[in-house]
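Much of our argument rests on the idea that a fold can be written as discrete symbols. The amino acid sequence and the backbone structure tokens for this protein are reproduced below:

___
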Amino acid sequence: SMPHPGKVPLHRLDFSAKLPAQRLKNLRLLEKTLKECGIDNPLPSDGIANSSFQDTYETLQFFHSFAQRNGPRVHVGYDASGRRRAAQLQRERLLLSSSSSNPTRPTSRTAAHTTSDPFPTNPPQTHADPPHMVSHEAKRSAQRDD
């Protein structure tokens, strides 16, 4: 977003994307934005989303050279981390507003734990570790208590 302020919809990016499908969605958005900004460089999106070293390396080389050519004139005063935080907050607000306008009601007690509610009313029950998973310290303290 640095060389083209306001053109990149950062709030639509998933900054915590871990799965290939999530990364692919981000890359498709990036491709579309690059095309709208007049940058004609096809991204190997499938390869990058699936963590292909060669595709990722070539893409990083392209962006590095692009930043070297265009960055010096625009990077002064650019707060990348601040823009990312603002985009993440905007994304969270949009997700919360869309979920509150379309509430879903769990059908069973276990369904309440599978919703995306960050503050569940009934947190899942935790179980004690099986005996083979208990640490030596816990065993010693249990023996002392007996």
Q: What stands out?
A: Residues 53-74 form the longest helix (22 residues). The CA atoms of residues 14 and 26 lie 7 Å apart. The radius of gyration is 23 Å. The chain is about 50% helix and 0% strand.
